[in-house]
Amino acid sequence: MGALSIRKVKKSYGDTHILKGIDLEIENGQFLILVGPSGCGKSTLLNMIAGLDDITSGEIYIADRLVNNLSPKDRDIAMVFQSYALYPNMTVRRNIAFGLEIRKVPKIEQDEIINRVAKTLQMEHLLDRKPAQLSGGQRQRVAMGRALARNPALFLFDEPLSNLDAKLRVEMRTEIKLLHQRLGTTIVYVTHDQIEAMTLGERIAVMKEGEVRQFGTPQQLYDLPSDLYVAGFIGSPSMNFIPCVLGEADGVGVVTLNNGKDQLISLGQISDIQRPFVGKPVILGIRPEQLTDPASAHSDHPNMQILTAMVTITEPTGPDTLVTVNINGVKTVARCHPRAAGVPGQSVQLSLDPTKALLFDPVSEKRLA
Ligand SMILES: Nc1ncnc2c1ncn2[C@@H]1O[C@H](COP(=O)(O)OP(=O)(O)OP(=O)(O)O)[C@@H](O)[C@H]1O
Ligand SMILES: [Mg+2]
């Protein structure tokens, strides 16, 4: 059964088109992430799923039911907001119970539900406190508890961790993932943080300016981004984008990389989509970990390419060191073993995995598959 289906959904305020035709579909129990920069329309889309905002055109189905004309309370959803929206004068217990009272759930059943939720979220000892007596992470847990007290078809989260400090954010992220694994709930989760998106999502929709640029699994987005935007947005440090001209030698794509001297790099069999670009400018996309010191490289590929470059700066992260070099006039980051990171001002040898290198059209910005 489809848990959520969004078809050609648009939203406009007068002449301003906020959402320009969104199509998304997830199955029961899946964790969907909507990720993108501020203002791209994530909350607008979530609010339209929740019924807090009307749809200009298109259709939204929850559990195979068209919900366009249903009020929020009839949509079988529970929402957790960035602000938590707890009632300050009520205890945690009553904050969780409030929605149940409104729906006239019998008192005995209410108590059962509250105890179950409190146990799930490990906050039994907090039930008699008021929100002001809780830490940020605990408040966040209460907001989740209120959602969990229901048993909805769909959970909607709008940046629920953005008010927490970095350490707590990582802890709560793990808790949410565990909760999802344990309860098998269907979740739509909004964030602007690509790491949160990658670690939590089973499906990710990368949004920009009211459009979904790519919808796929975290691995698909990472390995085969559809365009320069997605390629640059997912992954940290970002993918390197090196301008070059595509050449061809015996059916193999080649590019020249220059750091002091020209070095010809073979990329692999040229595809039909790439062939028209021979002799033309392209963007070579390489993730930092695919450019590394030769000893750290996965040398199982027989065609591993070695290049020499001058080190500009080295930045240790602990397990490895980010080494910045200049290639074809752009800053390029390699991820090296700390002992093989080189010294600024001297040259270093780097190994490039040609099977992982991507090519993009600089005009359309699409990946040339
Ligand atoms: N009532 C409104 N009238 C006109 N424009 C609006 C209205 N509400 C939102 N917008 C615009 O719609 C766009 C999308 O807003 P939205 O809140 O969905 O962004 P977002 O992706 O959630 O951003 P953030 O990460 O900052 O929360 C923004 O440019 C915003 O200014
Ligand atoms: Mg928002």
Please list the strands of the largest sheet in the order they lie side by side: 6-7-8-3-9-10
Counting DSSP H or I runs of 4 or more residues, the number of helices is: 8
Overall geometric form: elongated
Low-pLDDT segments: none
Description:
This protein has eight helices and 21 strands. The protein is α+β, with helices and mostly antiparallel strands. The protein folds into two domains: 2-233, P-loop containing nucleotide triphosphate hydrolases (Rossmann fold, 3-Layer(aba) Sandwich); 250-265 and 287-356, Nucleic acid-binding proteins (OB fold (Dihydrolipoamide Acetyltransferase, E2P), Beta Barrel). Strands 6-7-8-3-9-10 form a six-stranded mixed β-sheet, with helices on both faces. Strands 16-20-17-18-19 form a five-stranded antiparallel β-sheet, with no helix packed on it. A hairpin with a 4-residue loop joins β17 and β18. α2 (92-102) packs parallel to α4 (136-148). It starts with a strand and ends in a 9-residue tail after the last strand. The mean pLDDT is 92. Magnesium ion binds next to α1.
